[in-house]
Amino acid sequence: MRLINRHPGRVSATLLGLLPFLLIMLIYSLASQERLAENPNDKLLPGLEQMTAAIDRMAFQEDRRSGDYLMWQDTTASLQRLGMGIGIAAALALVVGVLNGVLPLIRANLAPLVSTLSMVPPLALLPILFIVFGLGELSKVMLIVIGTAPIMMRDVAQRVRELPGEQLIKIQTLGANSWQVIVRMVLPQIIPRLIDSVRLSLGPAWLFLIAAEAIASTEGLGYRIFLVRRYLAMDVILPYVIWITILAIVIDQCLRLANRRLFPWYNAGGH
Question: pLDDT tens-digit profile of 179-236?
């Protein structure tokens, strides 16, 4: 049998998926043990015991200065910023994307602006956002919005234009006006596609969030990582990076599950 025709079973696929992670953990463990054997105070590659102690200190022990559990405080602050930014960006993408996709006059007016904004490096605008909106929460949320909304707008507009033309002809033949076309034909089919677009935007959104928190913040996952880097505290940085990755995966899977439950017809089509 040709290799391109061989498909792993469920168990085999799971094991093959775990293998790269196990190899990375093994390589890291061996390298950490070697460095710690030479220098027990080495901070570059902390061992499991050091990272466990750091997690316990950050997540389950009150901070001496503030009395807060820092890891949970940072997580709450970051998730609030991320949720607000992604939520606003998704709402804008739905409105502007649908209008650009359905109405040619709106598309002629807004599509060039959206395309241009999607090409602007969002991090280059960060100093401007701090000047305009200050160093508070709004500037961080706006960076996420500016960084993700234009791409989602273009994606939604493209998905609207890809809807079958026969549907548009039929619904207009039945007497639907423009508003009814949007509400009854476009929105029910676009919302699951918007959720997919949000899932794809989560990676960049985390990047913009961490960057904003690193520059101007007093709490948050990005803030904590860049705060402890001056002490070379890899025993804190690595668990925080892993925790961010876990949060991103959980959010992505929750959106995927919601899409599957709310729109089974969409997923049945192989999306």
Answer: 888 888 999 999 999 999 999 999 999 999 999 998 878 899 999 999 988 888 899 9
What pLDDT is stored for residue 251 in this prediction?
96
17-48 b/e (C-beta count within 10 Å ≥ 16 → b): eeeeeeeeeeeeeeebeebbeeeeebeebbbe
Looking at the 3D structure of the chain, how many domains does it have? 2
Which segments of the chain does DSSP mark as H helices, in order?
10-38, 48-59, 70-102, 104-119, 126-133, 137-161, 165-173, 178-180, 187-215, 221-228, 234-262, 264-268
pLDDT digits (tens, 9 = 90+) for 39-93: 887 778 888 888 999 999 999 898 888 888 899 999 999 999 999 999 999 999 9
Q: Which two tokens stand for residue 16?
A: 């093959």
Q: Are 215 and 227 in contact (CB under 8 A)?
A: no
Closest CA to 213 of 72, 93, 80: 80
> Cα dihedral angle (161, 164, 166, 167), rounded to 10 degrees?
-80
Q: At what angle do helices 126-133 and 137-161 cross, to 10 degrees?
A: 120
Render the burial of 200-221: b for 16+ CB within 10 Å, e for the rest. ebbeebbbbbbbbbbbebebbb
Region of 146 (left: φ > 0; alpha: ψ -120 to 50; beta: rest) is alpha
Domain of 106? Answer: 59-268
Does residue 138 share a domain with residue 80? yes
